[in-house]
Design brief:
- It is built from 3 helices and 21 strands.
- It is mainly beta and 421 residues long.
- Strands 5-8-9-12-13-14-15-16-17-18-19-21 form a 12-stranded antiparallel barrel.
- A hairpin with a 4-residue loop joins strand 3 and strand 4.
Length: 421
């Protein structure tokens, strides 16, 4: 019956991901004000995106926003509007493929007691959910973990995703001095974006104790990403423009509208993990971990990063009175393929409880020093674990942002189950 409960919960998580993936498709709709046709033949030819990463660049036909040629003047917004949209898309693509994953730390850790001739528990609490503490599972012990994480991105660098603004400028080479905007060259195109990004993540994890001090494990993520974008463009005529009717949209709509929607499901970036318990001291426990994130996820569909990274981690923890365990994790993520994605990763927090119920809080941070302004992402994580019988553990966790940097969700929810053998 117990194993039936475990299997049932895992199947429920698989159904959640499968249900999200039933609508995997691309939908395109383009219209002008009042649903008038924009009248661009290129829209029907190149408007369909090939992957989620193509959705933003494919807006308005994928070649910028064509305008109606004025008398004696061909508009020059096409290149700049394409560049502006692509810049936003590239920034989002750098972050969306990095998903939160649960700890390799099982709720039960053991060591062989030669005096008693059997295994004894080395911890009395059930462990953190998104951080690590120093103790390992124990020789020959096996832990299975299945978790389901779901969230919707709400903000990008503090700006709401349903109210993003991208400005396209006119090329300053049509009249007058080179590289100086004059007259109608001061006109701009304002592109208003309403962007929806929803993620569903099923993580399947196995960790095995090779020795009393060494654990190895693997995490297999199955990812579903749903993306919808609506765009509205309008010309902002400069007060310095003596001919305000110079720039109008092809087909005569005053404000063309475009919409793209698609979803994708597949395997994300597989993670290989190892942890070694270095020191079991009277004042502190130390462990070293090593993670290899393989670029197995499809980056064109935001299912992964498409790159390989290696991360050494130092783990410090200590249990007091058998019920309170503070811990600190510090690591550095070396991206083998793109050094600009290197990042410092850290977690600091505590867990408090008993063998049956444990709650924990963590401060989870990522700092990318090679980003333009040194992106620093900080989340607060609060969760609980419950052991209803034997080595079966249920857990629930919520993460909220503590700052505005990067691509963020207002709430990341995770629930799951684990079993130790």
């Amino acid at each position: 019956m117990r194993y039936g409960m475990i299997l049932g919960l895992t199947m429920c998580m698989l159904f959640c991901v499968a249900h999200e993936s039933t609508a995997d498709h691309t939908m395109t709709r383009t219209s002008g004000a009042g649903d008038e046709a924009v009248g661009l033949s290129s829209l029907s030819q190149v408007g369909r995106a090939k992957g989620l990463a193509d959705l933003l660049p494919s807006l308005f036909g994928g070649a910028g926003i064509p305008l109606a040629p004025a008398s004696g003047h061909a508009p020059h917004f096409t290149v700049s509007s394409t560049a502006a949209i692509n810049q936003l898309n590239n920034q989002i693509a750098r972050e969306i493929g990095v998903f939160p994953f649960t700890s390799s730390q099982g709720g039960f850790t053991y060591a062989f007691d030669s005096a008693q001739g059997n295994f004894v528990r080395t911890t009395q609490t059930l462990g953190p959910i998104f951080a690590e503490k120093a103790p390992t599972l124990g020789r020959g012990k096996l832990n299975f973990n299945a978790s389901y994480t779901f969230y919707t991105f709400n903000r990008f660098d503090g700006a709401s995703l349903d109210n993003l603004r991208v400005t396209a400028e006119h090329q300053p080479d049509s009249i007058g001095e080179a590289n100086v905007r004059e007259g109608f060259e001061n006109d701009t195109i304002l592109i208003a974006l309403d962007l929806s990004l929803r993620v569903r993540l099923l993580s399947l994890t196995a960790t095995y104790g090779l020795t009393d001090r060494l654990d190895v494990g693997v995490l297999l993520p199955i990812v579903n990403v749903n993306m919808n974008v609506k765009a509205n463009a309008r010309v902002l005529t400069s007060p310095d423009n003596p001919t305000p009717d110079t720039h109008t949209f092809a087909g005569a709509p005053t404000s063309p509208i475009d919409e793209r929607q698609s979803s994708a499901t597949g395997v994300g970036d597989v993670i290989l993990r190892a942890k070694y318990h270095l020191l079991d001291g009277s004042l502190v426990d130390l462990a070293g971990a090593f993670l290899a994130r393989l670029g197995t996820g499809d980056a064109r569909n935001f299912l992964g990063t498409g790159t390989t990274s290696l991360r050494p981690v130092l783990i410090v923890s200590r249990t007091f009175a058998g019920v309170f365990t503070p811990h600190i994790n510090i690591g550095y993520d070396f991206n083998v393929d793109q050094g600009s994605r290197n990042a410092m990763e850290y977690a600091a927090g505590f867990e408090v409880g008993s063998e049956q119920f444990t709650v924990g809080f963590d401060l989870l941070g990522t700092y990318r020093p090679r980003d333009a302004n040194g992106t620093h992402i900080v989340n607060g994580s609060l969760g609980g674990k419950w052991n209803p019988f034997r080595q079966f553990v249920l857990f629930l966790n919520a993460q909220i942002p503590f700052n505005d940097a990067g691509l963020r969700s207002n709430l990341i929810t995770t629930f799951g189950a684990e079993y130790s053998f």
